[in-house]
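Same chain as my last thread, 182 residues:
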Amino acid sequence: MELLLALAVITAVICFGALISFGNEKQRRALNELREQVVLWAIQDLRIKRERLARNVRVDDPLGWLSRTAEKILGPGLNLKVVEFFQDPPVLVCSNENENHRVFFSPLSPDEVKGIRNARKNRLANPVMDNPLLSLPGKVVEYQLSTLNCGFLFDAEFELAWKGITGHSANKTDRLWMYLPR
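reply #2:
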């Protein structure tokens, strides 16, 4: 009799534990779905607000915009002046009037630049690399400018500023790379 009672209690405890585990798993899935819905709602809300603002984006002074954007990374006192623009690969060479050093801007990431540099080195037909981005010295500090560190509407403003300075499209990229030779 005692043995049957002990088995019944053990079976009841195991069944009760299984029911609790099943209920907890069901609640976990429901909370995850709710969390996903909240995130999707927040993203959509930001898209709507951003689209409303992006319609009115204007960059009246593209070079001033570029200077202010670079100041967010390098600190105040930056006054950029365009030196030259190269189309293939795209690079904007600027100089800082205050300190007289060069700053290179390109929509190409450091990995893309290395790939182009290696591809050009292997070509026998084009041994001369006149693009300064491809002949940067070994010690270069690279900064990525994007909406994360340069403002909510960076990508929309960047497209307008790049076209205003260079006369060419930035090909809908949402990042700009700044290279500082040391």
